Amino acid sequence: MDMRLKEDFLNRWKKYFGGAELPITCWYTDDGGAADRAEPAKGHRCFIADLAKIRKGESMRFDISAIGCGGGKRYLGFTQDVPPDFERFLSCGIPGVLEGARYKKSPGLVKEYEARSPSFTAPAVAPS
Questions:
Q1: What are phi and psi of 7, to 5 degrees?
Q2: Alpha helices in 18-56 (DSSP H)
Q3: pLDDT confidence of 125, banded at 50, 70, 90?
Q4: How far apart are CA 11 and CA 2, in angstroms?
Q5: What does DSSP assign to residue 35?
Q6: What is the DSSP letter of 18?
Q7: Is 102 exposed, middle or buried (0-12, 13-18, 19+ CB in 10 A)?
Q8: Closest Cα partner for 106 from 89, 122, 81?
Q9: Among 3, 63, 73, 117, which is disulfide-ready with 78 (CB 3.0 to 4.6 Å)?
């Protein structure tokens, strides 16, 4: 990284955005040296939780094995699979059966969002 460019960006960010957190950037690459590889997920681990490290300034590189949740794999383009009752998982859950993440207020809003959202396949996963 060009350190002068980095310093210039940080100075301008501070000038124009004060104490606001730095933005998170992401991209797809085959360059394994772009950042440290995230450890493979052991069991369920939500991708959103990994963003805490990134917000603190750590650069991380993810592949499908480092994503421990179906939603992260799907929304990052590593798979198009949708688990059963996904709309309930993202919203209110099923009492006594499935805990809800409460990202959306209701299963209907999840279905509406899914219907409007284009599907996305990560470049390295795309069929040749």
A1: -60, -40
A2: 47-55
A3: low
A4: 14
A5: S
A6: T
A7: exposed
A8: 89
A9: 73
The predicted-structure confidence for 87-104, as pLDDT tens digits, reads as follows 998 899 899 998 888 989
From the list 52, 54, 99, 47, the residue with the least C-alpha distance to 75 is 47
Which of 44, 91, 97 has its CA nearest to residue 72?
44
- Residue 55's nearest CA partner among 98, 12, 75, 26 is 26
Q: Return the structure tokens found at 35.
A: 């950042």
Q: Where are the beta strands (DSSP E) in the chain?
A: 36-37, 60-61
The residues, any chain, with a CB within 8 Å of residue 88's CB and separated by 6 or more, are 94, 98, 100, 107
**Structure tokens that stand for 51 in this block:** 């963003």
pLDDT band at residue 50 under the 50/70/90 scheme: confident
**Structure token pair of residue 58:** 């750590």
Give which of 114, 51, 120 is closest to 88, Cα–Cα: 114
Tell me how far apart the alpha carbons of residues 7 and 11 are, in angstroms, rounded to a whole number.
Answer: 6
Instruction: Kindly state the DSSP code that residue 98 receives in the 8-state scheme.
Output: B
